[in-house]
Every structure is written in C-alpha cells, then in structure tokens.
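S.,

Sequence below, as promised.
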Amino acid sequence: MPQTTIAQGAEAKLFKSEKSVIKNRIPKGYRLQILDERLRKQRTKREAKILEKAHKLIPVPKLIKSDEKNKKIEIEFIDGLKLSNNLNSLDNNLKLCKTIGQQIALLHDNNIIHGDLTTSNMIYVPLNKLSSKPKALSHKLLNNAAQVSITDNPSHMNFKVYFIDFGLSFESSKAEDKAVDLHLIKQALEAKHFAHYESFWKAILEGYKLSKTSKETLKRLEAVEKRGRYKQAY
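The prediction came back faster than expected:
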C-alpha cells in the first residue's frame, strides 16, 4: 500500500496510508548505536502503552500495531482540523477549551503526562465528520482514579477533540510534572492564540478543575511560572 510522508520531526517521520499513520523513530547518528537502539525501542514501547491507556479515557488515535523491533507504531488517522490553525475562528472555541481542560484532567488523574501539550497536537472533529454519533465524556471518580462515564444523549457535545503525538509522554503522579504539562498549553495559547489567550486559558482551567488534584497542581503551576520569570530576569 502506497505511503506518503506527512511530517518529520526531531524524533520521527510520519507516513500516511489510506486509513492509518505510521510513526517511525529515526536513528540518531550522534548517539552510540547501542544506546540509540535501546532508547528508540523504549520510547516506542512507552508511547504504545500510553496510547492504549489514554484511549480508554479521552479521544486519541487508536493504536493499530506496535513494532518495537523496527521502532514503529501504526495508529488510526484522524481526519479533522488542527486546532493551532483553527481554534481562533471556531464559533464554539470556549466550549472546545473547556473540553481540553477536562481531557487534560482525565489524563492527569490517571497519571498520564502528555509532555507536549499544544494546540498543534489537538485535532477538532465536528459531529458530521464522524462515522457514528460521539458519546459525551463526563468526569467520575471511582476507586480513587478518574474514569470516563458515557452518556447516550450528548446534546452539548457536537464534536470531539483528539489529543495526538504522545511521543514525549510518560507516567507520573507528581504535581510538578502535571504543572509543567499545564504550563506548556498555557504558553502555547499565549504564543499562538494571543488575541484570545485569557478567555481560552480561563475556559481550560474551568474544565481542568474537575481533576481531583487540581488544587495541588495549580498551586505548583504558580511555582513553575515564578521559576520561569526568574530565569528571564537573568
């Protein structure tokens, strides 16, 4: 089946086939070969594991195949709009931002750190683009872990927001790691969506406060931002 190169980053190349995307972690010539092989294998395995875990919580591309030997994963292709280019102009952008906050909360309550939370790594799929009607996500605590509750009548949900590119993701229960994740999306909003930055960030926080650890994480976020301002001053 023919494949088309759709992107190349520092860590990997992305190839698109008819209904899927193949992510191939490329060798790094500056690293010792044995170390490079080990790192790429470990990161491929970790990304596949986290994708499978996250898929039970929020919309993410479905993992189709993981090939640790060849440092590749194959995932579902999501046909939608990249939020970095479209969030400002969408009529329901504040509802979208609240949903983003809720989905980050679900990840964090299950100790998943995305590691690269920007609107470039979020895909908006309106209801009429989906093959079946989406089910709404709501936040429910069960056995001290955030779970997804599904409702069959999502009158308020006419879209999905998919989080993509979990290449830098990892698992952690530390408030510091969750705060840095939030700091990344806040910086991304300020840089890419400056005209709406304050209202977008406020909506994300409104959604994120559903997290059972939001108070601790947001308090730590203040410390993370203070460190950033201190570094800029010197």
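DSSP finds six helices and twelve strands in the chain.

Coffee later?
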